[in-house]
Amino acid sequence: MPMLILLPLLLLCYGVGNIHCSTVHDNSGDLKALLDFRQGIPSDPYGAMSNWTMNSHFCRWNGITCTWTRRQWRVLSLALPDKNLARKISCSLCNLTFLVYLDLSSNNFVSPLPDALTNCSNLNYLDLSSNLLVGTIPPKLGLLSHLNFLDLRSNHFEGSIPGELGQLVNLRSLILGENSLSGEIPHAIFNNLSSLRYLYLYSNSLGKALPSNIGELSLIS
Ligand SMILES: *[C@@H]1O[C@H](CO)[C@@H](O)[C@H](O)[C@H]1NC(C)=O
Ligand SMILES: *[C@@H]1O[C@H](CO)[C@@H](O)[C@H](O)[C@H]1NC(C)=O
Ligand SMILES: *[C@@H]1O[C@H](CO)[C@@H](O)[C@H](O)[C@H]1NC(C)=O
Ligand SMILES: *[C@@H]1O[C@H](CO)[C@@H](O)[C@H](O)[C@H]1NC(C)=O
């Protein structure tokens, strides 16, 4: 799939020479957002982003997959798991308005979750597990209505689970375990999330009151 998406671009780039291909069908907003995201990452010990340079189109950078849409290349997926990246997840990531898939799991990001993540309104896969993220889970995450996989496990999130997550009607997996969350599990999660099949809340300080009928849900709390 990624190969099929990239093929026309590769032909284009080889056709006109590597140096200039980035200016041919560029989305400058996506390019700026990616450069700003990289700016927030002073530590990249494995060189995972070493080919994020202007010598090649951003669609060929490590971890990036693009889609051709409205006569532009747009970033569809950003996946850099397990690269020891630190420190900040830049807010401008949310300027990647076509982003569908974001996996920055198993790194050393320490920032709070950018509130503006909700601008990535097409996101359906969000994995920020096993980082050092702090603060509360923004209620606005409930606006990511296409989300079907949300994994924030093993961070330092505190506060309660926002009831707004009950708006994520397409969610199949909700994985919030191994944080410092407290309070009750919002009823909307059981009442509204009819697609939910996997709920992992293990190792938090959540209230124990669980509804008796949780249907097909496999729950690890
Ligand atoms: C992200 O978008 C906002 C609002 O359109 C803009 O002000 C900002 O400059 C953008 N950031 C980057 C790094 O492109
Ligand atoms: C960047 O690195 C990735 C992973 O090593 C590789 O697949 C990709 O082809 C590289 N891109 C360029 C332009 O060298
Ligand atoms: C999010 O989108 C809104 C509306 O398009 C825009 O005004 C705002 O600047 C965006 N925020 C960021 C951080 O890009
Ligand atoms: C749950 O669903 C009901 C009925 O569709 C809706 O009124 C309510 O706002 C939803 N709750 C949340 C937290 O999304």
Q: Please, could you describe this protein's structure?
A:
This protein has one domain: Ribonuclease Inhibitor (Leucine-rich repeat, LRR (right-handed beta-alpha superhelix), Alpha-Beta Horseshoe), CATH 3.80.10. The two termini are 36 Å apart. It has an 8-stranded mixed β-sheet with strand order 1-2-3-4-5-7-9-11. The chain is 15% helix and 18% strand. The longest helix has 15 residues. The chain is globular and about 55 Å long. The N terminus is likely disordered. With 221 residues, it is of the alpha/beta class. The structure holds 2-acetamido-2-deoxy-beta-D-glucopyranose (4 copies). One 2-acetamido-2-deoxy-beta-D-glucopyranose binds next to helix 2. This is Leucine-rich repeat-containing N-terminal plant-type domain-containing protein. It is a single-pass membrane protein. Keywords: Glycoprotein, Leucine-rich repeat, Membrane, Repeat, Signal, Transmembrane, Transmembrane helix. It is found in: Membrane. InterPro entries: DNA_repair-toleration, Leu-rich_rpt, Leu-rich_rpt_typical-subtyp, LRR_dom_sf, LRR_N_plant-typ.
